[in-house]
Amino acid sequence: MRSPAGWYPLARAMQRQLVAHLGPTNSGKTHAALTALMAASSGVYCGPLRLLACEIADRLNAAGVPCNLVTGQEVRLVRGARHTACTVEMADVEQRVEVAVLDEVQMIADKSRGWSWTRVLLGMPAQQLHLCGDPAAAGLLQQLAGHCADGLTVQRYKRLSPLVVEPRALEGLAGVQQGDAVVAFGRKALHKLRRNILKSSSSSSSSSSSRREDGGGGRDWRQQQQQQQQQQQHSVGMVYGALPPEARRMQAALFNAGPGAGPSYSVLVASDAIGMGLNLNIRRVVFATMHKFDGQQLRPLTPTEVKQIAGRAGRYGSDHAAGYVTCLSESDLPLLRQSLATASEEVTGACLLPRYEQLEAFARSMPAGLPFHKLLSAFADSAQLSPPYFLADMANMVALARVLQHLEAAPVALHARAAAAAAAACDEESGDEGFCSASSDEDAGSSYGCTGDAGSGAAAAAAAAGLDLEDMFTWCTAPASADDPAVLQALLAFASLFVEQQRVTPDCMALPLQTPPASQAEMKAAEELFRVYDLYLWLAGRVGHGVFRGRKQVQRQRAQVAALIDQALREMGGAAGSSTQQQYDEMLGLDPAAAAAGSSWGKRGRYSGQSNASGRSSSLSSSEDEAEVACGLR
To answer: Is the pLDDT of residue 220 over 60?
Structure first.
């Protein structure tokens, strides 16, 4: 762990040129990097969110540059493509390219996901590696370039449109205007804010109509027109981290559509999820609060968080020549002004996560039969890293390992899986929809997603003895939070089926709703179900084809949940029209005819609604006030 640059001999064999594009939000830094990417003969874009990867893939394909899309849950291959847009965790550091782009590079210091940025920065075998992000990362990038013996060029950018702090706070929701994004944190607070804006604008609109009928008291007509614009009856969209990415994208599209364009929103209620991954035509950002609960305590927003959110106002090239920002409460304005005037804290550390091979070597030095969660803890205690590197927070991995401990294999040779795979390779099944099955046209030729098993027979032979070391590493790095009861219980159910039956099918998690969610509780349950589908698809890409069956069916059901969530938000927010399944099929690259033929609206899944270890229902959490994690979705 002392010299991680040496982990990547392919990159070290090249004389790479690093180009850092550093500037604030809305400065054109990413555009400059993408221009170089599109001009290259081959390349890869690595972004923090599926939304960003999807947007870049769409942009390149529309520009005539064939581009694949690769995320943890889906692969869309384009014939003849030599470019790929992917989430940073899915970047292939074994494939040479001419140009690579690593977006939001300051996230290299994130204690949970930063290891993915470190891996790409140190290991991507690209002739040119473009690094886009906050100027606060400049010093660290210089240091890492030296570790790699690569040249580094730094290009700095300024904001393309002015950002103006308004002199006064709104002091009430009646002042919310068309084009505003009102920012709050937590699902309960956001839904309450949406209801209050709708209620306030409805009341103000009625009062304004009465005054117009009375002649307006002789006021100047321009003043009346301005007041009417401010007090119009709003339709309100929502964007927050727990929403499916597809629903967030549709909500953003309705907000960007503007008035007179059919179904649309005049106002957006959002969490800090708008700070990354969505291009929004926001005129003004209004902070309903300058504090957020981070999972442990209620704290003020950091200057970096404030700048990331406020900077979304007045996007260059939108309908607004300038961006504006203010607060709902006058008492929050001093912190807003101070945060925008304060330099972001310097990024000084690069996160590292041990590779499987390193854990395997460490396990050989430990007592036989040591549970995986104890192995992880012992590794964390023993690891020695050189500055500026630090070890990733493995608390969630340890928690998942505890949950799966009873499924671990008995003490056997560490390479038992490889031996079983070799013995059973001839037993590989065909004709299923495995993540990388050659029988699926959309996956043919893909080098992404499959690790470990050569086929279902090999997986069955190895799984019968329980989860070995490599299995545990895979299952414990899955996108499942130990604080998410529904997803945690699904992980346990999938792992149990894998060990006991050597096969996991969608039958264990059929869709539990046929109509849009009609309450916050139902909305929360639908969001949880979407995350369960995400987990299923992620595991389908890593455990081996033939084990997790029916991937396309799960993709369709996942799209249906997203469509129902979006439809519920439209109805609650006052936007006419409803989302259609075809829109989501197109987003996912699915054949609409096949999707319609294969749709399934079955009974409640076996794990759904059952009591978990804490005694709570897995489909409804006891807390409605969970914090939204800034830009943390994969």
So the answer is: no
pLDDT at 41: 98
CA distance 448 to 235: 42
Torsion over CA of 483, 486, 489 and 495, rounded to 10 degrees?
A: -100
Cβ–Cβ < 8 Å for 37, 83: yes
Strand partners, 85: 45, 69
Q: In what order do the strands lie in the sheet with 126-133?
A: 75-76, 67-70, 83-87, 43-47, 97-102, 126-133, 17-22, 151-156
How far is it, in rounded angstroms, from Cα 542 to Cα 89?
13
For the chain, domains (ranges, CATH) are: 15-156 (3.40.50.300), 163-341 (3.40.50.300), 354-617 (no CATH)
DSSP letters, 230-267, are: HTSPP-EEEE-TTS-HHHHHHHHHHHHH-TTSSS--SE
Q: Residue 57 and residue 445: Cα distance in Å, rounded? A: 19
Taking residues 187-216, what's their average pLDDT? 72
Judging by DSSP bridges, how do beta strands 67-70 and 97-102 pair with one another?
unpaired
Convert the pLDDT of each residue in 135-167 to its tens digit: 999 999 999 999 999 999 999 999 999 999 999
Output b/e per residue, 250-277; b: 16+ Cβ within 10 A: bbbbbbbeeeeeeebbbbbbbbbbbbbb
Among 134-148, 175-189, 418-432, the range scoring the smallest mean pLDDT is: 418-432
Q: Which residue has the higher pLDDT, 503 or 583?
A: 503
Mean local confidence (pLDDT), 344-348: 94
DSSP line for 368-396: TT--HHHHHHHHHHH----TTEEE---HH
Please give the helix or strand (H or E) that residue 481 lies within, else none: none
Phi first, then psi: what are they for 92, rounded to 5°?
-95, 110
Indicate the Cα dihedral angle 372, 375, 377, 383, nearest 10°: -140
Return the axis-axis angle of helices 469-476 and 372-382, rounded to nearest 10°: 80
| CA pair distance 506, 446, nearest whole angstrom | 23
Residues 240, 182: Cα–Cα separation, whole Å: 12
Q: Residue 601's pLDDT band (boundaries 50, 70, 90)? A: very low
- Which pair of tokens denotes residue 486? 């529904």
Of 229-243, 300-314, 319-333, 469-483, give the lowest mean pLDDT range.
229-243
- State the burial class of residue 539 (Cβ atoms within 10 Å of its Cβ: 0-12, 13-18, 19+): buried
Count CB neighbours of 132 within 10 A. 27
**Per-residue pLDDT tens over the stretch 20-73:** 999 999 999 999 999 999 999 999 999 999 999 999 999 999 999 999 999 999
Rg over alpha carbons for the chain, rounded to the nearest Å, is 25
Mean local confidence (pLDDT), 188-194:
95
Across 161-187, average pLDDT: 95
Distance between CA atoms of residues 507 and 509, nearest Å: 6
How many angstroms from the chain centroid is the CA of residue 31?
21
Tell me which of 8-17, 178-187, 419-428 is least confident. Answer: 419-428
Q: Which residues contact 301 (CB under 8 A, 6 or more apart)?
A: 290, 291, 292, 309, 335, 339
**What's the pTM value of the predicted model, to 2 decimals?**
0.81
- Contacts (Cβ under 8 Å, ≥6 apart) of 594: 552
Closest alpha carbon to 229 in 255, 259, 252: 259
SS3 64: coil
Cα–Cα distances (Å) from 436 to 73, 441, 537, 538, in that order, read 12, 10, 12, 12
Could you give the CA distance from residue 218 to residue 213 in angstroms, rounded to a whole number? 12
